[in-house]
């Protein structure tokens, strides 16, 4: 133990230990070693504080003697709600004990029962709740159900009142009386359905659905009127025919009216026929119950002339007017067409045997009648001798000549042209064959596809307008007539020929002369 400042003060002041026993410390002089405790009467060492005495003992510091602690002193703390603390008894701590099963360790409520200790554990058992649906304290409201909710509380759930099948009442709930029905007001009226087919305009009256009975009345004394309760349809049942029930059918042209099969009918007045096809004899009209002749509607068919070869004779007022003469034309030029007035049948007699006709086909010519039938003649020739057209025949319009596309190869019939092609205007033309032999002493031309180079004695090779040698043209050129004629062959005048050119020209001329003599 350590010496405190108070202990040292006591030693200095009082020079001894007796006056410092209450400090709980012994003086440590010099070596500061603890001195021996005073000896108690029973031989145990003395004490300076309670820790020197152990559990359930307290130290009397004035005497240094350990005495028993108070019975209120807790010597072992509680380890749980079911483990009570132990208190000192006669200087000792009793054995540890657990609360018995009769001890409540957790208070409960209406839907949460209290839990008791188990006697074997310091802990309180888990909290338990009353099962859901178990009745609990009522809240005095008839519109709620009072039952535990399974979570420890008493729940008050609003009651669901059963549905009301009456369209004239509403379901309500009173806190005092519970579920019930209240009538809908009569005004304004609430429409409803009383499910009775034989009522109309159903409305709520005093909480009940009511309608007005359906009226089934056909105003006839010949039927018994009622409503079918299953379908709501009116039923008119004929009264018995025997004995006969008198009635009135509303007509002045009948007599002895009686009910027959639910209908009022009488014997009709017979009016004489006036023999006019355009009138009808009838009872009534402006004459009341008297007979009169009334015109039939305009356009009513009749027979005005007893001729069956007129069609649609019709009434105009009270007169029968003849219609249109029947057309018996069969469109055949080889028949004579007529109508038989006795039966109205058309007669088509063959005529004009071998005579000219038309079979309606523009692609035949020379058609003739044969036994009443127009026989086709010779097929029409549509060739226009133009290779730049496509020739065909349309049975309605005749020959057609459609142009071929430009630049299409063709033959213009001229053997003195080449590369013949179709032009945009539908004609065929080609390039003239070039027969120019470059000799000014010859007349050049194309004949039958062959180039001709003619010479003339005394001439210089010029050509006239007709392509012959022109002796009067001294320069070997073409005359104005040649140029105007557009001849494909021409001479090229030359002058000032040099030596080699002259020799070549003489050679060519000689060759032409020789060939000309051979032809002769």
Please give a structural write-up.
The chain is mainly beta and 520 residues long. It has 3 helices and 36 strands. It has helices at 5-14, 480-485, 499-519; strands at residues 57-60, 65-68, 74-76, 86-87, 104-106, 115-116, 144-148, 154-158, 169-174, 178-183, 199-205, 208-213, 223-227, 234-238, 254-260, 263-268, 279-283, 291-295, 310-311, 314-316, 319-321, 324-325, 335-339, 346-350, 364-365, 368-370, 373-375, 378-379, 389-394, 398-403, 417-422, 428-432, 443-447, 450-454, 462-463, 469-470. The strands form 18 sheets. The chain has a two-stranded antiparallel ribbon with strand order 1-2. It is flat, with a radius of gyration of 75 Å. The N and C termini lie far apart (181 Å). Residues 1-37, 458-502 and 516-520 have low confidence and may be disordered.
Q: What is the general shape? A: flat
What integer value in Å does the Rg equal? 75 Å
Q: Which class of secondary structure composition applies to the elements?
A: mainly beta
Strand content: 25-35%
Mean of all residue-level pLDDT scores? 79
* Gap from first CA to last CA: 181 Å
Percent of residues in helical segments? under 10%
Can you count the beta strands? Answer: 36
């Amino acid at each position: 133990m350590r010496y405190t400042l108070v202990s040292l003060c006591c030693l200095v002041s009082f020079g001894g230990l007796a006056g410092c026993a209450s400090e709980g410390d012994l003086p440590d002089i010099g070596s500061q070693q603890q001195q021996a405790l005073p000896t108690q009467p029973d031989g145990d060492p003395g004490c300076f504080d309670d820790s020197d005495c152990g559990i359930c003992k307290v130290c009397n510091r004035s005497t240094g003697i350990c005495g028993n602690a108070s019975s209120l002193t807790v010597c072992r703390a509680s380890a749980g709600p079911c483990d009570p603390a132990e208190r000192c008894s006669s200087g000792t701590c009793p054995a540890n004990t657990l609360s018995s099963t009769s001890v409540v360790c957790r208070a409960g409520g209406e839907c949460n029962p209290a839990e008791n200790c188990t006697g074997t554990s310091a802990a309180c058992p888990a909290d338990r709740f009353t099962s859901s649906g178990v009745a609990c304290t009522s809240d005095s409201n008839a519109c709620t159900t009072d039952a535990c909710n399974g979570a420890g509380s008493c729940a008050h759930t609003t009651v669901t009142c059963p549905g009301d099948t009456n369209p004239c009442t509403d379901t309500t709930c009173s806190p005092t009386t519970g579920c019930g029905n209240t009538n809908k007001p009569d005004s304004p009226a609430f429409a409803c359905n009383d499910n009775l087919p034989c009522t109309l305009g159903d409305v709520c009256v005093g909480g009940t659905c009511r309608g007005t009975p359906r009226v089934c009345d056909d105003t006839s004394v010949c039927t018994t009127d009622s409503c079918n309760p299953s379908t709501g349809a009116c039923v008119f049942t004929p009264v018995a025919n025997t004995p006969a029930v008198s009635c009135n059918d509303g007509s002045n042209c009948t007599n002895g009216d009686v009910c027959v099969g639910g209908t009022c009918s009488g014997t009709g007045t017979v009016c004489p026929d006036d023999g006019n096809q355009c009138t009808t004899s009838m009872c009534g009209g402006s004459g009341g119950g008297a007979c009169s002749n009334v015109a039939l509607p305009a356009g009513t068919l009749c027979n005005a002339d007893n001729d069956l070869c007129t069609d649609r004779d019709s009434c105009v007022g009270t007169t029968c007017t003849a219609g249109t003469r029947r057309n018996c034309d069969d469109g055949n030029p080889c028949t004579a067409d007529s109508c038989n007035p006795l039966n109205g049948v058309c007669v088509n007699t063959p005529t004009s045997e071998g005579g000219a006709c038309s079979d309606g086909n523009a692609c035949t010519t020379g058609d003739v009648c044969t036994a009443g039938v127009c026989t086709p003649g010779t097929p029409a020739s549509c060739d226009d001798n133009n290779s730049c057209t496509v020739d065909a025949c349309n049975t309605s319009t005749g020959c057609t000549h459609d142009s071929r596309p430009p630049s299409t190869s063709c033959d213009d019939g001229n053997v003195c042209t080449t590369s013949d092609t179709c032009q945009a205007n539908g004609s065929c033309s080609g390039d003239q064959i070039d027969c120019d032999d470059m000799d000014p002493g010859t007349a050049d031309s194309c004949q039958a596809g062959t180039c001709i180079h003619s010479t003339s004695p005394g001439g210089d090779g010029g050509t006239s307008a007709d392509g012959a040698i022109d002796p009067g043209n001294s320069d070997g050129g073409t005359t104005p007539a040649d140029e105007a004629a557009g001849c494909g062959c021409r001479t090229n005048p030359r002058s000032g020929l040099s030596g080699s050119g002259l020799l070549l020209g003489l050679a060519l001329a000689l060759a032409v002369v020789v060939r000309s003599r051979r032809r002769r």
